[in-house]
Amino acid sequence: MSRPKKIVLLGATGSIGENTLQVVRKHPDRLHLIGISAHSNAEKLSQIASEFKVPHAYLPETAGEAKNLPSFTDLDRSQDGLLSLASLPDAELVVIAVVGAKGLSPTLAALEAGKNIVLANKESLVLGGDLVMRTARENQARVLPADSEHNAVFQCIQGESHRDIDSIILTASGGPFRELPLEGLKNVTVEQALNHPNWSMGNKVTIDSATMANKGLELMEARWLFDLPPDKLEVVVHPTSLVHSMVRFIDGCCLAQLSPPSMTFALQYSLLFPQRAEGVHKSLDFSKPLDLQFTPPSLDRFPCLRLAMESLDQGGFAPLVFNAANEIAVEAFLLNRIGFPQISDIIDSTLSNFAHQHQNDLQTLLFLDSEARRIATDVIGDLT
Prior knowledge:
- The chain has a domain at 5-145: NAD(P)-binding Rossmann-like Domain (Rossmann fold, 3-Layer(aba) Sandwich).
- Helices cover 42% and strands 14% of the residues.
- The protein has helices at 15-26, 42-52, 81-86, 104-112, 122-138, 148-156, 190-193, 203-211, 213-225, 263-272, 303-314, 318-334, 342-353, 362-383; strands at 5-10, 31-37, 56-58, 74-76, 93-96, 116-119, 143-145, 165-172, 233-237, 243-249, 254-258.
- The chain has a seven-stranded parallel beta sheet, with helices on both faces.
- Strand 1 (5-10), helix 1 (15-26) and strand 2 form a beta-alpha-beta unit.
- Helix 5 runs antiparallel to helix 12 (318-334) and helix 13 crosses helix 14.
């Protein structure tokens, strides 16, 4: 058997990081963790470094001291430390599980160094999809999807010609409010919105699932990952989250990928690609009845999805503005500063008040992201 693949995990202490570590534990003969980063959880970073004997780590200066970090781990706390870790010379694969717009810079750093990446950071493609994919092509690096929906598409198109793809259908659970009377949405609490029926995720992503903003962001990602125009991208509500996506081909045939709702299936596929191995969790049991119901989403019930689709159609920096405004609005909702329906109102107002520009470099993208967040914050201030 060949030697283990050397991987760097950026965002090791978050939800995606934890699922990635489950796969690494399952396959120590195939995966070797050589670098990790955390945003603030110094203690958990130290525990991971100790368990996996990680030689390189990054923790920003704003975080606490990593008092229990093992002596064999070299800790970088410099301003460019995350970028250095993303482009670590020995790394063969970099997992980008950093949350938010700050994931774009290490994504580009890894690709510029010719590293294949497993991308779990939505913002990298929503903010700079053209820049990211162009950088990957120029450096002969691959962008492997970590999201279950995009990973499902990726699996379905292996061995297929791009010109034979008619369309992609992303599935959505519909979250906890898919059957709630519309009038009841104005009374939704934070606790109710965080109670997802299928998935265990971080707070931000769970709220995005309740509003279906997450599916809008996934449409934006799919446009760049699979090089398809918006009119070839669809969304259907599939409450049981067993089918993760489907691909329709020009001959009318459809391929779908099915697995239980756990992120380890998608992550393992990308981490071990192009090989397969025994999974962390068991597969579906087809000796028992399975609910494979699909229905179109209601854009009245999910205005965030409508706004995301309109932003994707508009193109330019509209997806960037949608993402920034959504992040600010969700944060305000989690703090009980606004009501659930106001999340979409804030996104809509921010999109309407944003002056679009035409440059497409990293500095411009980060500036525009910051400006969109400022506008969204002002909108919230006017509402509260």
